[in-house]
Amino acid sequence: MDIKVTTIKSAKLTTVPTFPSEGEEAPALALTTCTKPSSANLQTWHCQLGHLSPEVVSHMLSKNMVTGMEITDRSTIAMPCKQCIKGKQSHTDIHKSTDSRSDTVLSCIFLDVCGRLPTKSHNGYEYFVTWVDNKSQKVFVAGMQEKSEVTHHFKAFISQAEVKTGQCVGILHSNRGGEYIAGEAQHYLEDRGIKHEMTTPNTPQHNGVAKRMNQTLLDKVQAMLIDTDLPQSYWYDALHYTVHIHNVTPTQALDNITLEEAWSGNKPNVSNIRTFGACAFMQIPDSHCDKLSACSLICIFISLAHQCKAYCLVHRQTCQFIESHDVIFDEGGASLHYKHMITKDNDMTGGVSINETPSNALQQSPMPTAIASHPKCNTCTPVKDDNTHYSVTSYGPHSCTMEHASVAHTDISKDLKTYMEAMAHSNTTKWEMACDNEKCSFDMMGIYKVVPCPKGRKVVGSKWVFHIKWGPNGTIQKYKACIVAQGFT
Predict the structure, then answer these.
(1) Could you give the 3-state DSSP secondary structure of residue 173?
(2) CA 425: distance to chain centroid?
(3) Of 98, 104, 217, 238, residue with least CA distance to 161
(4) For the residues of 1-68, what is the DSSP string, one character each?
(5) φ, ψ for residue 454 (rounded to 5)?
(6) Which of 7, 150, 273, 442 has the most CB atoms around it within 10 Å of its CB?
(7) Cα-based distances in Å from 410 to 75, 342, 355, 475
(8) What topology does CATH give the domain 108-264?
(9) Any bridge partners for residue 172, and if so which?
(10) SS3 at position 340
(11) What is the DSSP secondary structure assignment for residue 258, as one 8-state letter?
């Protein structure tokens, strides 16, 4: 009979009287029999091989990876295989990036609530909600004690954002949480004409912008708390400061521009950025200390103030929270950095805001011991007013008195009101030199920089102040010209 062999296609079997005994040499060529291959269609092989992909089954046969296999019909395959779908179905791929972006700010806002966090903040917060603008990618955050507060917070956010930007919110994108689809929230969005987009059920990836942002913020918060050894109850202070830092730094979603500039059109000022948890020396107001008490209190920097231009500090020994603009920071460098921030224009009460809770954070020093009842008398002889050292005196009818008095009433002694008056004065050269000296002093100190006018900001005006400094003998000592900021905008 004919059989398949490895080296020749076929051969005739011959009669072999006996097989080689043990120890004898085996014949040079041995003929093996070929088993009958298993023949089946592609559908059968697909099922026999554990629902292996039909492409892989055909590839096995075409590349001679196995023997004893024969496919009779490659077209009889029912696709898709219901058994494969039931056993192997997975989530559809979700793109992590998009080519489309909103044209204006507030046209699309991503919203997400994070919590409950394992530790309650000292403010009583266990949740926080974030908003991410689709165009600028700027982030906003608010702390919450309960999830039910989210409606109140996004109402306040929408009102403030629309007033500040002059734009209207078009789309609010969130997941299907009950706090978003409650009756009050839906009625508010419908009344404002805001479209509410929600994620597909059981697909939080569709709100990936806000989800990833929450994770990014929490990662930074954790690193900042570990770096400063502050307890976890300070997580919201670190979160609020992290959001501020995130908004003034660049991101891959924008092209060489910060989030704040994309939102408002103005480049952010980072001169007030300090290390979270840095040692801060706060100046104690005069109303909280006497003349012999220490004038500085050692605190820890935790954030920037919400409603004024100041630093938020905490005094750890008494858990007193303070807002102040008179602060010297020690961030571990070679020298201390002094930072003086002005408060709001209408704030004339001082730059320190202290919690009203009774505390020993700003303790006054003990009162000094009583002073002796008979203090020393001053034994120095007073200088007489008519000492010859002075050329002008109020005693006696000196001839120079009337001369100097008359000089005081001349037109030259009057302070000028405007720059035009100074340039039209008889001593124009003197006033022009005084103005040049003032400009040179500004340049030497480097206290200003010429920049384009920020968008949507009112520029504080300035004016020249002119004054003549007189000597004791009635002569002019100096022409002074100063540039001052006007106290109104």
Answers:
(1) strand
(2) 53
(3) 104
(4) -----SSSS-------SSPPPTTSPPPS------PPPEEE-HHHHHHHTTS--HHHHHHHHHTT-SSS
(5) -60, 150
(6) 150
(7) 117, 40, 55, 13
(8) Nucleotidyltransferase; domain 5 (3.30.420)
(9) 109, 196
(10) strand
(11) B
Number of other CB atoms surrounding residue 150 within 10 Å? 22
Helices 208-228 and 235-247, axial angle in degrees (round to 10): 120
In this structure, the chain runs to a length of 489
The CA-based angle 162-163-169, given to 5 degrees, is: 5
Q: Give me the residue spans of the domains in the chain.
A: 1-89, 108-264, 279-354, 399-485
Q: What are the tokens at 367?
A: 């009162």
pTM of the predicted model, to two decimals?
Answer: 0.58
Per-residue pLDDT of the chain (489 residues; tens, 9 = 90+): 444 444 444 555 555 556 666 666 655 555 555 567 888 888 888 888 888 888 888 888 888 898 888 888 877 677 778 888 888 888 777 666 666 678 899 999 999 999 899 999 998 999 999 999 999 999 999 999 998 898 899 899 999 999 999 999 999 988 887 777 777 888 889 899 999 888 877 776 777 888 899 999 999 999 999 998 889 999 999 999 999 999 999 988 888 899 999 999 999 999 999 999 999 999 988 888 888 888 899 999 999 998 888 999 999 888 889 999 999 998 774 433 434 333 333 333 344 444 433 333 444 333 333 333 344 444 444 444 444 444 444 444 444 444 444 444 444 556 787 888 888 887 888 888 888 888 888 888 877 788 888 877 778 888 888 888 888 887 888 888 888 887 764
Residue 342: Cβ within 10 Å count: 11
Q: In terms of DSSP H, where are the helices of 229-337?
A: 235-247, 259-264
Residue 255's alpha-carbon distances to 133, 136, 242, 400, 455, in angstroms, are 16, 11, 22, 75, 20
Distances 180 to 103, 151, 462 between C-alpha atoms, Å: 26, 7, 50
Q: Which residues pair with 131 in a beta bridge?
A: 111, 140
Residue 485, SS3 per DSSP:
strand
Residues sharing a CB contact under 8 Å with residue 443, sequence separation 6 or more, in sequence order: none
* Tokens encoding 461: 């005006």
**Which residue has 């202070």 as its token pair?**
237
Contact at 8 Å (CB) between 304 and 241? yes
**Would you give the DSSP letter of residue 406?**
H
Q: Determine the Cα–Cα distance for residues 155 and 160; give it in Å rounded to an integer.
A: 9
